[in-house]
Design goal:
Helices cover 30% and strands 32% of the residues. The chain is an alpha+beta fold and 179 residues long. The strands form 2 sheets. It has a 5-stranded antiparallel β-sheet with strand order 1-2-3-4-5, sandwiched between helices. Strands 6-8-7 form a 3-stranded antiparallel β-sheet.
């Protein structure tokens, strides 16, 4: 396990598929959580272990410091969600040159500021450690909670796009602060 970043309340770390599977299943088996996440609904432990193993493998293959990571409450060790910073996938299924930040949180963690808190530290990591020049977020137009997070992060709405994941999504962008 590797710790990517910490905030006052959260540890952001790599997933440990076997150990984290039960908590991850509680997140990704909830239809309200996966409502805007195509192909992310999990129904059993084996399926979620495979998903977490795939996420770890993607990060290893990319080998560029990006990945999909667990958001863990410092106080309790509870996993409250996922924060990600990865290249966006184009409609052909291939990674593009554009980087995406995103978040998925369990329902009991909604409205507590965890997505914004984790995203701020990961944006900082993306700009200052990985030296990315811009980071995007893509959000379903009906996902008002995630749109509000992009606003709190200072991301600029670019408009609708069909450039990624074969679906129409709202695109937001944040440029690296001047050095």
């Amino acid at each position: 396990m590797t710790i990517i970043a910490e905030t006052d309340r959260l540890i952001i770390r790599t997933w440990i598929p076997q150990e984290d599977a039960e908590q991850a299943l509680k997140i990704y088996s909830d239809p309200e959580v996966t409502r805007f996440l195509p192909n992310s609904k999990a129904t059993d432990l084996e399926q979620i272990v495979n998903t977490l193993e795939r996420w770890v493998k993607i990060a290893a293959q990319l080998n560029n410091g990006t990945g999909l990571w667990a958001m863990v409450l410092k106080e309790t060790g509870e996993i409250v969600g996922t924060i990600l910073l990865v290249p966006l996938k184009g409609n052909d299924g291939q990674f593009t040159e554009d980087y995406e930040i995103g978040w998925h949180l369990k329902k009991s963690a909604w409205g507590k500021g965890y997505a914004t808190e984790a995203a701020k530290v990961i944006l900082n990591y993306g700009f200052n450690v990985l030296k990315l020049r811009e980071i995007y977020s893509i959000v379903n137009q009906d996902n008002t909670a995630s749109i509000k997070v992009t606003q709190r992060l200072g991301m600029i709405p670019i408009g609708s796009t069909t450039k990624y994941y074969n679906m129409k999504l709202e695109l937001f962008k944040l440029e690296a602060p001047p050095q």
